């Protein structure tokens, strides 16, 4: 039997000792359980019905033999629990959050054992108190509410307790219609609904709003471009690279601070959380335009920290705990002391073998920090599962070593969030498992566990199969975007250098495509082993694998035409164009199953551009 996260202490009873959860059983809330646990017990009963086909009755009072008994104990740590199964009862005792986590353990047991549960005693609590997931809903995709709620359900199942959604412009601000008018933003009512939904499941929905850099839609608008660090930002040609690289706010204009405060003031009352993430990362243009003189006089680090400090103090004055990304301040960590002492530094690092130096520097400077690894899906059709495992494992280890108070596992949407966001569940589970219990299983072991518990693959192969797919990419989405944007003069040389580094990957593209066909066959075979609730992910995965194959072929054509590479054979370009267009039809269906329209049109535009390129259509300027 697998349990994710792995509990700290497990003792099994006698092999023939078990408890049968009967249709006549009750889930009993003892008087110690408050209103929140009452609501959560109802959710647990509904989940048990999905696993067993019947639901135990729910009541309050004193349990009897045959019941599941829930008891809240003030003597236990808030997130700890004790679960016992014997021949008479299932008993879950813990702090308020702990009882809820014990219910998730019971649900995982029922998923594998049905109604006949083995005798067991589990004592458990997390290594890291705050265990979160961070999802980009700005750069390419705005999820449907049904997807966001499903995400919250998954997080609860694996004992996570924080969720953040990355927003630049994809919220329907009342006074800033110019920045969201051509997107499909979340509304205030939807945020309120999601906040309530998360809270019921023990998850804190923490507001996250880009407040410094990464303000493309804001600072390229007619109404607010004058606040941009660079002149004439509204006249800059659009490119996916450019919108991520530029559009930092001018900190020397007093109106900038008031503008950002106004956005925060409208956004933060929608959340019950008393925390707020201002982001403040990747301020690439700071000191290079309108603030050049101030940067020369005071230093870029000074004008950076002064603006961050002003925003943090504004939040503290409004009863909120500030959070911000730590990439910039890692260059001058001693300045962390100037921020309000409760400020949380979100220390991110996404390399497969991420080093620990930044975590140490911030810890030595006295920072209160979260460690922030990545699910490693951005710019990929299939997530880099092995990379995410190694990255998250290391960042969780550093979190414990340097006393980080939280882990925030990230899933970004660089270059239009082309990947299917449900694929992020594997990386999400790694973060949940490794932050709860930093005794981390081996890669193959945890993948078998996830295959069975999450994907309901009885042969425990599914995650291993999909993990091998990303390794077959020879011409990835980012390479395709960079080739498409070679006409943007500012980044042309950088794009050329990047593409040059990737071209050798195409030498064995045909072999990789043959591997993909075998992997697809294994996915098709897995359908017979999977639960009906998880088969819906099969088509998205097969579509993504087809994308890898088609882009590998596209890359070979480009390498031949544009870079003089020679191959024994090349695909028929017109046929490949048709395949791309047919693939796009299915991709859009998959995309719309979980996402609003958002920037789907941009993805379509890129695919159509490449289909025209393959047919040799002239004048394909960027």
Describe the structure.
The chain is of the alpha/beta class. It has 3 domains: 9-124, Chitobiase/beta-hexosaminidase domain 2-like (Chitobiase, domain 2, 2-Layer Sandwich); 130-221 and 253-286 and 320-440, Glycosidases (TIM Barrel, Alpha-Beta Barrel), CATH 3.20.20; 467-615, no CATH class. Helix content is 44%, strand content 12%. It contains 21 helices and 17 strands. It has helices at residues 35-52, 96-113, 145-157, 177-180, 188-200, 216-219, 240-245, 254-267, 292-298, 300-317, 357-364, 385-401, 425-436, 443-453, 462-469, 477-484, 492-502, 509-526, 538-563, 573-594, 600-614, and strands spanning 9-12, 18-20, 26-29, 57-60, 68-72, 81-85, 90-94, 116-118, 120-124, 130-136, 162-166, 204-206, 275-277, 321-325, 344-348, 368-372, 406-411. It has an 8-stranded parallel sheet. A 7-stranded mixed sheet has the order 1-9-6-7-5-3-4, with helices on one face. It has a two-stranded antiparallel ribbon with strand order 2-8. Helix 1 (35-52) links the parallel strand 3 and strand 4 (57-60).
